[in-house]
Amino acid sequence: MSQDLTDLQLLHELEPVVEQKINRHMAMRKDWNPHDYIPWQEGKNWYALGGQDWEPGQSKLSEVAQTAMVQNLLTEDNLPSYHREIAMNFSMDGPWGYWVNRWTAEENRHGIALRDYLVVTRAIDPVDLEITRMEQVTRGFSPGQNQQGDLFAESLFDSVMYVSFQELATRVSHRNTGKECNDPIADQLLARVSADENLHMIFYRDVSAAGLDIAPNQAMTSLHRVLRNFKMPGYTVPAFRRKAVIIAVGGVYDPRIHLDDVVMPILKKWRIFEREDFTGEAAALRDDLGKLIEELEDACDKFEVAKHRRLERERQVAEKKAMKNLLVTTASTA
């Protein structure tokens, strides 16, 4: 394998591409205001100002919608960590620095809008949300950190390729959450947020594509490392595994969605399995990505079986509960 470029060399080589993609982004982006997507007429004071604090019955959202909305919001809340990570890996100079700050400013709107919607509509417990936010942001986040806290080596390529997949996954999650809410306002808000995420994904995806052309073997090494260790940034949220199951079974974001709507579209866009410029170890890593796709397919099949069993158990429990309630009602009126 040829000598790898340093991150400083890659930053310099990719700078013209970054400037071009920023110009495209600024031409495509749509400015919007978080306050325009909040039903303020539904708001009322909380206990501290003589009002009423939250009760579960006030929420109009299903358990799946509540869980997904809170998970999405808590993920957005870790923006300080994300800003730090890309600033450290991208540089704050020139076009790279402009993008770091522009991306951060656009992302900040998402947490503002989601929190305002959830609090104003009393869709979730705001006290529990704040407690969890404090814990989540204190934990921080690094894309090279797995659930055991171990770090894999990070580089410019690691970062830009990770966010290519992560931004697309976030877009999909927001969009599906909006549909699950069964509320036209929430759907409209999350469609707006997901449109931002889509443009961010396009930026990172196309910068990564340029990197693949400049240093294909080095880029493939990072791509393999990212996909083999991929975790969504929300994995640091307390009780993540339980929430992820609820979201997956509810059809908001599951293994099939991850493979078909996130992983494969980007790999196809980069023509990973068609390119002929990978050599040596990088070529072997590309072949291993083929095996990873097979493993993800197997995980999708196993998930569907487990999902069917879970839903059947829930149906049986609901039937028993309904029968018990019927018997109690019948006895009380006899």
TrEMBL record:
One of its GO terms (molecular function) is metal ion binding. Keywords: Fatty acid biosynthesis, Fatty acid metabolism, Iron, Lipid biosynthesis, Lipid metabolism, Metal-binding, Oxidoreductase. Transmembrane segments: none annotated. The keyword Oxidoreductase applies. Homodimer. Belongs to the fatty acid desaturase type 2 family. This is Acyl-ACP desaturase. It comes from Mycolicibacterium murale. The lineage of its organism: Bacteria, Bacillati, Actinomycetota, Actinomycetes, Mycobacteriales.
